Protein 1
Amino acid sequence: MSPKFSDSPWVLAIRPKTLPAAIAPVLIGTAMAFGDGLFHAPSALACLAAALCIQIGTNLANDYFDFKKGADTAERQGPVRVTQAGLIKPEIVLAAAIAFFVLSALASVYLIERAGFWIFVIASASIISGVLYTAGPKPLGYLGLGDLFVFIFFGPVAVAGTYYVQGLEMDPAVIVAGLAPGFLSAAILAVNNLRDIDTDRRAGKLTLAVRFGRSFAMSEYLFCIMAAVLTPYAVYLITDDHQGIAAASLTGFWAISSVKAAFTHLDGAGLNKVLASTGRLLLLYSVLFSLGWVLCSR
């Protein structure tokens, strides 16, 4: 029997189940621009390319540096990490991470030329944060700052940046709308850190789960889900329009099983399923919100 495509070392290294964190905010920002009559296809595609390259580059850098720092060991309960498992040589994984960050920077050049200095700031900060998440003497993820940076850069910054490069203007509702993908991306990270709490603690990786314990990580997950589900109503209070975005809150019903599992299945296999289902939840939320915004635009 031939091996599955999903078992390819490079597919494992890229971590497809995490990519909704890059796709969702771009989709929401683009839908809001479209609904407001500001859609610009080349900018939307460049944003998507840049976001995906940053996410993949961060995943590859995480694979390399977590192995080098001793956070990824044979005892880890999560999906296979290619560097630790010896599937791809460490130097090749690092080179691939650098290549994806460079590709993200190249995709950002067009956006900077179109939208100016602030997009340069956003693009630079996003790439640097992706590198420093696990690299350097004091990586963000090892200091417990990963959740905050994921929330900011995969939430309000990504949604607002996507909208701005298309319309060259900003609406406060766009920034508020960006809270939801930020919360859901942070929820994905909370599950990841809950699963890895024991190996992270031994490696000195002081995630919020390690700092404050399992109960905190589970509560963080629940809070992030609830906050995301309520975000459409905050957006509606600002716009008094686009009632259809309330459909995105229906994802809260689908999230019930994931929340229950996060509180009851503390083994690696169970939490891996929660992580995957939360990624799907993020993608579903972004589709429902985007459809609601576009279909209910005046």
Note: The chain is about 75% helix and 0% strand.
Protein 2
Amino acid sequence: MPLLTRIEGALSRSLVRCAGAPPRLQQAMQHAVFPGGARIRPQLCLAVALACGDDDPTLADAMAAALELLHCASLVHDDLPCFDNADTRRGLPSVHRAYGERLAVLAGDALIVMAFRELGRAAGRHPERLATVIRWLDEGVGPPDGIVAGQAWECEPSARLDQYQRAKTGALFSAATAGGAAAAGADGHDWFALGASLGEAYQVADDIRDVISDPAILGKPVGQDLLLGRPSAAQELGLDGAVIHFDRLIDRAISSIPPCPGEALLRSLVLSEARRLVPSEGPAGVQRPMPVQTATPGDSRTASVARTVREH
């Protein structure tokens, strides 16, 4: 079964189990989860589970759903007036714009609880794995280094860029790869580095797009890092430097994939996501000059993206 089909099915089932809740709360939760984005975190989770044998797909699907529910909850809270005060998310009104601030807070809270509930319901076949899977999920979300800490660093007078990015984005990616392995009975520590590198690359790409992207294409407001004084690779390294750093992180992520039957699938997923996040081409219909130099031998993407960045 395709990964996205498994993910969408698991998410749909989790929301169906909320039948009977106040109708507008259900609607707000549905709005937060569907339609989704790239679902890269749950895709990584299932890809690693498959690479490790995927002998308990029920638990792997629950872990994938839990990751996406927590990610969606973080977006709902991130968009609130007390943080980014964002009007749009994924090209639609943010939850607090569509349903009000009170229901947005409650919807985010509900999605967090649902994430751990999904795991508890899926532990029948291998209950001995549940504690390890939950531990990886907890480390990706809670303090000191999870996404809650990442959001909290925005409330501090200053923060180190690497520390902020590891918590804000990298932690849930690491939870995805390590948790996917643990759901299949493998050692999550062997897969932690893949998630850490890809998560940091994802945040660097987000920093780049916050500077150069069109809100209509990105599906959310841009220019927020500078406006809100958040740490940003694009500001600290410059746009060219951020693109070079992104490519190095992608290379590091690929090289960290342990030898396994699913190595080709994982490599393909990482490269596909890299092209989606920071494409080498400019906007549709605009021809870019050939790059005059590259930061990594044999890779023309860095310089061509850097040129696109400079011109936009």
Note: The chain has one domain: 3-278.
Protein 3
Amino acid sequence: MPTCPAFDPLGPYVSSVVSYIECQGLTIGEAGYRALGPGSAFGMALTGLLTIYVALIGYRLLLGSAVMVRDSVVTAVKLGLVLALATQWSAYRVLVFDVVTQVPEAAATGLSGTAGIASNGNSGIATRVDRANAAIADAISTKTKAMATSATAPAPSSPNAPTAVNPPAAPGMDSLQWSSGVLSVTALAGLLSVRIIAALLLALGPAFIAAALFDATRGLFVGWLRVLAATFLGALAVPVVLNLELAVFEPQVLAVRDLAGGTQDIGALPVQLLGTAVFFAFVLIAVLAAMARAGLAFRLPERSLQDTLRLPKQPGVPLLPAPSLAFAGVAADGMPSRAQQLASAAQAQDWREARMAQQVQSAQRAASLRDEAGNIGTGRGSPNLPLGQEGRRSAPRKSSAATRRDDLT
């Protein structure tokens, strides 16, 4: 595990906070996983859960429950993933940890570079923010000194004029200070919020992965995946938004600093700078909300009981209705009882037998119709009709024209 350096309060503020929190987040994620790994109390509990899970499968087979090939494959894959991700740090690091912590930053850097926006990762963004704040502080200091010098300089006509105790403040300095503060808060909140949430989820990963074994706790695993997906998307979107903001913010800061060092008025630039910072703060909030909504929309495929019991449809053979969930032993407010499960298995078996019998009868009926059609087509006739009477109308005509024609004849 990496050893994080101590936080330096006298160094560049945003860079120091971002580097320290990111290092601590990686440490927390790895240390939390190792604390829940093999040899710990949770590791022994996980071994017991796996034993119970395999025993339940064996009891289902002993009680006559039908296990389909698809269910067997899904169960084997589930056990393999739980064992690999919850007990092996090397597999968990490659498949989950590195994907959540490293891929979003690299993808955001490539995306920003493709769009022509300068970007070199989260540390580079933090450095650029500190430079912008330093330029704003330099502009404020320069303008304040210039205003103080002009206020305290004696007038030529009155050499004994009194010195001003409180020189007038430079216009627009409050807006510059606010813009610097909003930029720092936006960068820290955007970069570190998703990092801290991801670190906590990665540290508790084995517990949520083990919850995928049973139906009653699978919702915890799905929720864990959803929040991880939301943090992944947020960590990808935040650097892009901050790079776009700095691409607009930095030229404004340089213009303010150049004007503050001369005799020209800085005009409305401080207010515009504050507007840029506030605007992108709201944009970042909207982007994080959108990424959270997209990540929380993740769903695992669920197979209903009707899809499990329904056989493939054959041409010309009607399907029997599958047993309803009410009779299948699935309670609306909890897990089904053992009696309900046995009744559901028996009903499902009866339904399958009836379905197969219906298919056999339908096949026999179709074969009989084909034989009769073949006899008529070859001219051999049907044994139930007199010779030469095949194909003649056996029912009287019902149309009015046919009735009048018959009356005339």
Note: The first helix runs from residue 13 to 35.
Protein 4
Amino acid sequence: MANAYTTTGSSSLGGTAGGAGLVQKAYDRLLEFALRSEPLIRSVADKRPARQAIPGSTVVLQRYVDLDAQTTALTEDADRDAVALSTPTSVTITLAEYGNSVLVTRALELFSLADVDPAIANIIAFNLADSIDQVAMTTLRGGSNVIYSGSTATSTATITAAATLSSANIRKAVAKLRANKTTGRKGSLYWAGIHPEVSHDLRAETGSAGWLLPNQYGSSQDRIWAGEIGTYEGAYFVESPRLYNATDGASSARVYRTILAGQQALAEAVAEEPHVVIGPVVDKLMRHRPMGWYGVLGFARYREEALYRIESGSSIA
């Protein structure tokens, strides 16, 4: 009589994985989070209300208007007529509520193989930063000053994948910012936010001889960890996939937005800083626990002359 083996099979002690039997699926109790990009767009907002008069759903920021230069010499025996100061210009920031929440059941906490509460708190906190960053990006990329890459592009819809970002585009944007008397954000350098797939084309064009590498920052290595990759043509570049792109070019080509900004390009007003909220348990059996985030704030472009957007394709899109 042939031997009968006790095995991992479905007809023996092993049984069927996931069902009855001694051989079962094994799960790692440590779960990894999804891949994330570091929120950084909100940091461009360096203008805020300094002495807000009262709370309100909108906040108005104003700027004085300088007098016209007077280049005609005074007449010795004639008094110069007085001139009136112009009405200040204003920018209005509309505040809005933002938030998100999840409702965690008691059963999940009891049955889960992993400790879900810290994970949910982490996911909520990242969702807060991610969401507010995208709100800031929507305002920042809507500026009126735009340069289109490529010799034939005249609008977003005419951008092709071959219309890659060039050094000439950067030089033009920097020249326009300086011509507008815009103050740099780091000395005379302007902030430049660039998508990695656009950075690839720019650095391939310029070569290492034209690009100041991060290790040349010496002791200021913290700039590298903020996403900064180097300085070039009057701007310091921060590389991030958060720079907006969409398939709204010619024949649905992907169009990338590279942003150059000086001081006070973007303003924000905050009524309540976004923060994580642990809600009250209000169901009869105390089984449902809410966790989320909430904030009230708004963004606006404060100085359009301090902001330029370059729209381009990418050779590796």
Note: The chain is about 20% helix and 25% strand.
